[in-house]
Amino acid sequence: MTARVVTLTANPSLDRTLSLPGPLVRGGVARLAPSSTEPGGKGVNVARAVAAAGGDVVTVLPAADDDPIVRALRALDLPMATVPIATPVRTNYTLAEPDGTTTKLNEPGAPLDDEARGALTIAMHQHAEGARWVVLSGSLPPGTPLDWYADLVRSLRDTGAKIAVDTSEAPLLALLDAGPDAAPDLLKPNSEELAQLSGVPEAHLTANRATALAAVDTLHARGVTEVLLTLGAEGALLSSAEGVWAATPPRIAVRSTVGAGDCSLAGHVLADLAGAGPAERLRSAVGYGAASASLPGSAVPTPEQVAALDVEVTTVRTEGLPSSTTAPPVTWSTTVPAAGRDVR
C-alpha cells in the first residue's frame, strides 16, 4: 500500500471570490476589491492541500479537457483524472466581507448520466487500488442517485484504502441509511450535519459537549469508524475506538472560510499518512482549518503556515467509557460563527 490519496469531486466548481469593501447591503452597490478565481469543489480543495504538503495525490472529477477548471489544475501541476462531459463546470461565488463573513452563491452543477458516473467509478478504482486514503467530498450533481456515495463506499472496499466522506443533506442521510457496509472509515460532519443525522437540534449540540458526543456515538453505532466533527471557531472533536479528543483553534483573523473544512480533512489525512496518533491527527486537522480560514478566497495553506499556529488538544474520554459519564457539560457558543460553516 502506498501513501497515495485519491479524491473525488463529482460536482466541481470554479470558485470566484468577490471582496466587498464593507458589509453586504441588500439592494446596494459595492465597488469590489480585486477578485480571484480558483479551481474548487471539496475534493479538489482536499487534493490541493495534500499536494501543497508534498503528498502523493490524484483528484478525480468530471470535466471536458478544455474546461477552465482543467486548465487551472494543470497550472497548479495537480495530478488529476478527468471524465469528459459536455456541460461546463459550474461557478460558485463567494462574497467576502472585511470581518471574514462570507456569503455563498452556488450554481447547481452539471448533471451526470449513467455513462459518466460509471466512468468516474472506474477511474476511482484504477487510482485507489493500493492507495492509503480515498476521499469522497461535496454535493452530488443534479439528478445523481442520492445513494451513489454509499454504492461507491461499498465498491471501493476491495482497493484496500481507507474511505473518508464529507457531504451533507440528502446524500449524507442516504449514506448512513444504507447500512454498516456502506459506512465510511472516516466521516467529517459539521454541527449542522450532525444535527441532521442525529435528530438533535444544532443549538443543543453546540451548547453541550455531552450532547454532541452522544450524537457522535450514534454514528459509530451505524458503522462509522472515526468521526471528525468540525465546529468552526470552537474547534473540533475526533472520536474513534481509541477515545475522544477535543481541540481548540488559535485566534486568527478570518479572511475566508471557503475550503476550511476541506483543509481540516486534508490535515487529518496528512497526519495519518505520517503515522500520527488520534490527538495529533486532530491537532493537524484544526491547524489546517484555521490556517485556511486566515487566507483569502479558497487558498490552501502550506505546512509552514500550519506549523506556526498553536492548537490545544485535550483528551475527553478514553476507550470504553460512555460519553454520558465522562463528558461533563461544557458551554460552547450556541451559534457557530461564519468561520464554522463548510461550503458544499
Automatic annotation (TrEMBL):
Annotated signal peptide: none
Record domain Carbohydrate kinase PfkB: where: 36-303
Pfam family, one: PfkB
Tree of life domain: Bacteria
GO MF annotations in UniProt: ATP binding; phosphofructokinase activity
Ranges of compositional bias, category Polar residues: 319-336
Chain segments carrying region Disordered: 319-344
A single Gene Ontology CC term: cytosol
Gene3D superfamilies (UniProt xref): 3.40.1190.20
Record-linked InterPro entries: PfkB_dom, Ribo/fructo_kinase, Ribokinase-like, Tagatose/fructose_Pkinase
Keyword entries, A-Z: ATP-binding, Kinase, Nucleotide-binding, Transferase
NCBIfam families recorded: 1-PFK
Similarity field: Belongs to the carbohydrate kinase PfkB family.
Protein name in UniProt: 1-phosphofructokinase
Native species: Geodermatophilus obscurus (strain ATCC 25078 / DSM 43160 / JCM 3152 / CCUG 61914 / KCC A-0152 / KCTC 9177 / NBRC 13315 / NRRL B-3577 / G-20)
Lineage of producing organism: Bacteria, Bacillati, Actinomycetota, Actinomycetes, Geodermatophilales
